[in-house]
Amino acid sequence: MNLRESLKLLSPDALKESLLSRVVTPEIDAWMARMPKPVGSFGYDPWGYNESQAKVGLGIAKLLYDHYFRVTSTGLENIPAKGRVLLIANHSGQLPMDGMMISVAVATNDHGPRVPRSMIERFFPTVPWVGNLLAAWGSVIGDPLNAVKMLDAEELLIVFPEGVRGSGKPYAKRYELQRFGHGFMHMAMTQNVPIVPVGVVGCEETMPSLLNFWPLAKLLGIPYFPIGPLMPLPARVYLNFGKPMRFTGCVTREDEVEQRVEEVKDAIRGLIDVGLKQRTQIF
Amino acid sequence: MAARKKPAATAKTVLVTGAAGSLAKRVIARLHPTYNVIAVDFRHKVDLDGGIPSYRVETHKRDFEDVFRSHKIDAIIHIGRIFAHESDRHRRYNANVLGMKKLLELAKRYGVGQIIVHSTFLVYGATAYNPALLDEDQPLKASEVTQELVDSVELESLANIFLWKHPELNITILRPCTVLGPGVRNTMSILLARPMVPVLVGFSPMMQFLHVDDMADAIKVAFEQNKPGIYNVAPDDWIAYQDAVEQSGCRRLPILSVPPAIPRMVSNLLNWNAFFPAYMIDFFKYPVVIDGKLFREAFDWRPKRNLNDIFSYYRRQKLPAG
Fold first, then answer.
1. Which CATH number fits the domain that encloses residue A139?
2. Which Gene3D superfamilies match (chain B) (predicted)?
C-alpha cells in the first residue's frame, strides 16, 4: 500500500465507512432482511422509522447488548413472528436502556425478528437530534392514536405502562411495580391484541438514583433529574418473556379493566422473580 | 382544436375560484368541455380558450354576486386562497374567511347543489405531541400554534357549519398534504424551487407530498362522485424534510433550533420573499402526517406520480442552462 492509499483510509468518509462496517455487521443486515416491515419509496414509514438508520441503531444497541449489559434473554419463542402484539414490561433505570435491550432481543430473535416499536415519553420529539434519531430507530410517542394505527398495521409495540413513575423511581424502590396506566389493556381488548409480559432484571442497577432532584428537572423541562451515576453502569441484564395473554370480551366498568391489568402485573412480577433467581452477580 | 368543442346543453355549470393558479388551471382542463366552466380569480382576469367565461372578482366583495346573477351555477370548486406567506393577516382574513362566508351564502341563495372546498393539512398544526396518521376527526390545532393560520382554520369551520346546517349544498372539504409541482406557488413549493433552503438543526420531520396533477384528479373525482364530508388527501408515502430538500437539489442552510427564540429571530431577519416564514418553523420541527385512507377508499383514487416524480421537477430547475 502506498502513502496515498493509506492517507485515503484516514479521510472522514473512509473512517465513517470502516466504522459503519463494524457496527452494521452482515449479521445485522440478515436480521433486518428477515423483518416483515413495509416502508415507502425512501425507506420511511409514517412514524419516521427509516431502514438504513435503524440498521445503525440496531448495530450500536447490539454491541451494548452483547458486551456492556451482557443480556440473557429467555422465552423469545413467546413473541409471535408476525401480527399485532403488545410487549408489556416493567420500567427502570432512569434512561430507557430497558427499552433498548428489549428492542435488540426482539430484532435479533431467531424465532422471527421483528421491528421493535417502543412508545416513548412525549418530551423526546422536542429534543434536537434525539427525537429524530429515536423516531428513525422505530420509537414513537405514546399517543393512543399511534398505538391504534400501528396495531392496525400489524406492528409489535413495546409499552412500559408505568411510564416515568417506573423509570424515574429511586433505587430504594427497585423491583416494586408502580401504578400501571390502563391504556394498553383497553387497546388489547378492543383490537384483539395478545399481550406478552416481560420481566426486566438488571436495569435498576444500571443507574441507581438516590432521589429525583425535581426543581432542576422542572427548570430543564424534563420529567426527572436523578442524583446518581452520570452514565449507565455495566450491570448484567436478564430479560424474561412470558406466554402471550389474551383478554377478550367486553367490560362494563373501569375496575374490571384494573383487575385485568393486575393479572398482567402478576405475570410480570413472576418473570422478575425468575430473572432475579437467574442472576448470580450484579456486574 | 379541442378547445372548440362545446359542452352538452344539459351539462352542469361549475364555478372554479382561484383560476389563475396552477391547481385550478389543471382542474379546469379536466372539467372542460364536459362541463360548463366559469373561472374567477381575485388576481386578474384569466385568459382561457374554449369560450370559458372568466372574471376578475374578489369573493368577499359585492360584485361576486353578479357572477351568480348572470349564470345558473350548479357547483362551486373553491380553490382561490391567499397563502399565509402572501399579504398581511388582516387582508388575508377578509379574503379567505369573509370570502368563504360570502361564497357559502350566495351558494345557498342561488341554489347551488354542490361545493368542493380546497383546505389544507396545515389546519392540524405542528406540535411535538402530534401522533402520525391523523384522522379527519382530530382537533385542528393550527391556530394554537401560530396566528398566521387562524384564517385557514376559520375558513374550515365555516364550511363545517354549512356542511351540517345545509346538507342540500353537498359540501366536500378536502385537506390535502403539501401539493407540489409546476406552477404551484405555496410556501413549500417556493422554498424547494430555491437553490438554498433553511433547515432546523437536529430536526427533520416526516412530510407528505402530492403532485399537483394528482390533486387535480382528486378534485375531479370528488366533484363527479359527490360524497359530502371531510377528507384528508395524501399518498401512502412519506419522507423526512431534510431528505426532501436534498432530493429537490437544494443546499441546506442550517439554522440553530434551540432555544426556540433563535429560529424566530432568524425568521424575522431572513423572511424576505417568504424565505423562512415564522409560521413554518413548527412545521420544520414537528411532523403533521395525515391519513388519506378514507378519501382513497371512498373515491377509489390513487396518486399516479411518486415522490421521485415530484422532486425531479425541482431538481431539473437547478440544472445549469443549456
1. 3.40.1130.10
2. NAD(P)-binding Rossmann-like Domain
B287–A contact, CB cutoff 8 A: yes
- In chain A, residues with a C-beta closer than 8 Å to the C-beta of B240 are 42, 44, 48, 50, 132
**Domain boundaries of chain B, sorted by first residue:** 10-183+209-234+290-304
**Contacts for B280 with CB less than 8 Å, ≥ 6 apart:** B187
Nearest CA distance, A193 vs chain B (angstrom) = 20
For testing contact with chain B, the best of A119, A143, A145 (most B CBs within 10 A): A145
Cα distance between residue A97 and residue B220, in whole Å:
51
Three-class secondary structure of residue B302 per DSSP: coil
For residue A45, the chain B residues in CB contact (below 8 A) are 238
Look-up of cell digits 387562524:
B150
* Number of domains within chain A: 1
Read off the C-alpha cell for B252. Answer: 441546506
A8 domain-assigned: no
- Among the listed ranges B84-98, B107-121, B150-164, which one has the minimum average pLDDT value? B84-98
Among the residue ranges A17-21, B56-60, B151-155, the one predicted with the least confidence is A17-21
pLDDT at B84: 82
Dihedral sign for Cα B122, B128, B133, B139, please: negative
Give residue-wise pLDDT tens across range B197-220: 999 999 999 999 999 999 999 999
Nearest-by-Cβ selection for B133 from A41, A46, A129: A46
Has residue A157 been placed in a domain? yes
pLDDT at B213: 98
> Could you tell me the CA-to-CA distances from B258 to A222, B137, B270 in Å, in that order?
15, 32, 17
Do A93 and A203 touch, CB atoms closer than 8 A?
Answer: yes
Nearest residue of A to residue B240, measured between CA atoms: A48
The residue among A224, A204, A229, A222 whose CA lies nearest residue A214 is A224
Q: Quote the CA–CA distance of A23 and A138 in Å, as a whole number.
A: 18
| pLDDT-derived band at B2, boundaries 50, 70, 90 | very low
* Helix, strand and coil percent figures for chain B, each rounded to 5: 40, 15, 40
Q: Please count the other Cβ atoms lying within 10 Å of the Cβ belonging to residue A58.
A: 29
Q: Which domain holds residue A154?
A: 53-278
To the nearest 10 degrees (0 to 180), the angle between helices A51-63 and A26-34 is 130
User: What sign does the CA torsion over B201, B207, B209, B215 have?
Assistant: negative
- The reported pLDDT for the residue numbered A159 is 96
A155-174 b/e (C-beta count within 10 Å ≥ 16 → b): bbbbbbbbbbbbbbbbbeee
Q: State the pLDDT confidence band at B7, using cuts at 50, 70 and 90.
A: confident
Find out whether A77 and A47 touch, Cβ atoms under 8 Å: no
Class of domain B10-183+209-234+290-304: alpha beta
